[in-house]
Write a structure and sequence with these properties.
single chain; 339 residues; alpha+beta; Tetrahydropterin Synthase, Chain A; four-stranded antiparallel beta sheet; 9 helices; rod-shaped
Length: 339
């Protein structure tokens, strides 16, 4: 290796080593400067953002801590709820939640760096601590205040003010979301009101606990099959009730239809009898009027009808005298009445 090349390599290493003495501070972070592991200074990005100089590595090194609001999801916690009737424990409930937190100032950043150092470690330490308080809050509440199963018709009656026959899905979903928000807000207020928890987390770890948000209430995996079976049983019972109610209504409708039909048939038969009687009376009156106008001609027509009936209803040979009354129509019509 030639001397110029050695000088170039050494110069490059010196340049890189000297460059490690420069570092920048962003507005969204704290920069923790240490000298052989001991704190030298903490830069707050809100007031000390920009370029800074330190001793080159490995004499002094830096650690960066985010000063913005951060969040992480808590592992699911299972807790027993309270039975309002007996005052004892009730069913087990699983709760998924998330928390928001931040490092408020450089003094808190110092405590955070000395105890937790990274957000991942903060999740490991703060998660069980907050989950323990969350389980305590849930164990003091009743199951109905956290999870409730309501009938669609009942929910719509509560929002619309009258029993609903047609399910308004959008309206029911909005009401369901409102009830869920109320339940999560109840837990959030009780957990957020734990001043002791807030002070402890800030004092020991330099973390300002801002808020907790409940993402979901559910039953543990071990009991979900039995809960699902119970739901199916309740739904089957509800189906049976609806079917029984439907059959009863169908029977009532059929009985009412049969009654109406019988009533209409009876009315029709009565009207038929009245109309036939009136028609027979009119026919008798007309015949009487015709008989009164020309008695001989009326008897002549009756004789023709009788003769027609005798001839049409038999194939026998009839031997009749010309003097028989039935033969008179063959002699001709009667004489017209005298005026």
């Amino acid at each position: 290796m030639t001397r110029p090349l050695v000088i170039a390599v050494v110069g490059l290493l010196l340049f890189l080593w000297g460059r490690s003495a420069l570092y920048s501070v962003d507005q969204a972070e704290y920069v923790y400067v240490t000298r052989f592991g001991e704190k030298v200074i903490i830069h707050d990005g809100a007031t000390a953002a920009g370029l800074h100089i330190k001793a080159p590595w490995p004499v002094e090194s830096i650690e960066r801590i985010d000063r913005r609001i951060q969040a992480f999801d808590l592992p699911a916690v299972e807790s027993l709820t309270r039975d309002p009737t007996s005052g004892t424990v009730d069913k087990t409930l699983a709760v998924d939640a998330s928390i928001t937190w931040r490092i408020p100032d450089f003094a808190a950043a110092d405590r955070f760096f000395r105890t937790l150092r990274t957000p991942e470690q903060a999740r490991k330490v703060l998660g069980p601590l907050i989950n323990g308080r969350l389980a305590a809050v849930i164990s003091a509440l009743e199951m109905d205040k956290l999870i409730s199963v309501i009938d669609v018709r009942t929910a719509l009656a509560g929002t619309a003010g009258f029993p609903a026959v047609v399910v308004d899905a959008a309206r029911f979903q909005s009401e369901d979301v409102r009830l869920i928000d109320q339940r999560t807000e109840l837990v959030r207020r009780r957990l957020g009101g734990e001043d002791e928890l807030r002070n402890r987390v800030l004092t020991e770890y330099g973390v300002e606990f801002l808020d907790v948000r409940i993402r979901r209430f559910s039953y543990p995996e071990a009991v979900r099959s039995s809960i699902a079976e119970r739901i199916r049983s309740e739904r089957a019972k509800k189906v049976a009730d609806y079917e029984s109610e439907g059959r009863q209504k169908a029977a009532d409708i059929s009985a009412e239809a049969d009654r109406i039909a019988r009533t209409k048939e009876a009315d029709a038969r009565a009207q038929k009898t009245v109309i036939e009687g009136q028609a027979n009376a009119d026919a008798a009156r007309i015949r009487a009027a015709a008989y009164a106008q020309d008695r001989e001609f009326y008897l002549f027509l009756e004789s023709l009808r009788a003769f027609q009936t005798v001839i049409s209803e038999t194939r026998d040979v009839l031997l009749l005298s010309t003097k028989h009354p039935l033969m008179k129509p063959l002699a001709g019509p009667p004489a017209p009445p005298k005026p």
